[in-house]
Amino acid sequence: xxxxxNVSTATVSRALSGTGRVSEKTRRKVLKVASELGYMGNSIAxxxxxKHSGIVGMIVPSISNPFFTALVExxxxxxxxxxxxxxLCDSQxxxxxxxxxxxxxxxxxxxxILISPCxxxxxxxxxxxxxxSIPVVQLDQFVVGTATDWVGIDDEKAMELVLSHAAQQGATxxxxxxxxxxxxxxxxxxxxxxxHSETHGISVEPDDIMLGRFSVEWxxxxxxxxxxxxxxxDVIVCGADIIAFGIIRAFTAAEVSIPGRVMLTGFxxxxxxxxxxxxxxxxxxxxxxxxAEAVRLMSQPPTEGVKAHAKVAFAPxxxxxxxxxxxxxxxxxxxxxxxx
Length: 340
Known about the structure:
Elements: H1 2-5, H2 9-17, H3 24-37, H4 43-50, E1 55-60, H5 66-81, E2 85-90, H6 95-107, E3 112-115, H7 124-128, E4 136-139, E5 149-153, H8 155-168, E6 174-179, H9 184-199, E7 209-212, H10 216-228, E8 235-238, H11 241-253, E9 263-268, E10 281-284, H12 287-299, E11 311-314, E12 317-320, E13 336-339
Parallel strand pairs: 1-2, 1-3, 3-4, 4-5, 5-11, 6-7, 6-8, 8-9, 9-10
Antiparallel strand pairs: 10-12, 12-13
């Protein structure tokens, strides 16, 4: 290309990269020749030279989960503001695949990694194998024993809001439905559920803890199990909205009223929570705030010596909708918000 433009290779490099001294006339000529030849720059080579690729890797357990879809969208928006591009990976809840994704991101010379680990224990090895030169921030879910920052929500406070509201609505018995206990979010939410159900005198039996997957299908299975049980609880507390959607589907098919027969709560406040019937009372996760703080922490310049790693927990909001309250004065769309 340098020959076609009748300039040196060094001039071509400066013109295309926008660095160094090149006249505007020469720059336009080089860009014109590059366009005519269909030239594309080698981003990997540039990354090796500059030690910055402009790319940030992100790994989530399941992109089909609408909460992670919203979180990814927020992260991409924040990265655009700082001139970086997102490289998204789905670990599919598989620790081995997650480790391969992490290695692939390292080999791609990403500027940083945002990850929601799929396993609260087994993900630690791959995370600890990431070179210290690559900043890592755990987002939403986390593993302990790693030298990384974490950004998420105060899950215990969220359960306090849920159980307090359920008690105010007259609940005296409850069931908790979430993913496997190896998930850090489930662990924290279950601990908060047990603590605050006891505080409010809401009974919980050992069989009332049902752990499976963050999926609509798991919610349907739980719904069928509860429908077959001789006694329905007063409230079903779900660790994710998508589980609650499955329960709503099962109960609707059986013509069991929510909230007339049983109250139901979710977690995340995904887009469909407000439009499903009945609309879902749920804990709102501030995805924009989570993303902005994660990108900020990842973008901080490296410090010498031992770094105190940040643990940032945002306050939850309880969004009260039809699934726990009967409409007042005929207003079926009334929504109340409670913040901690």
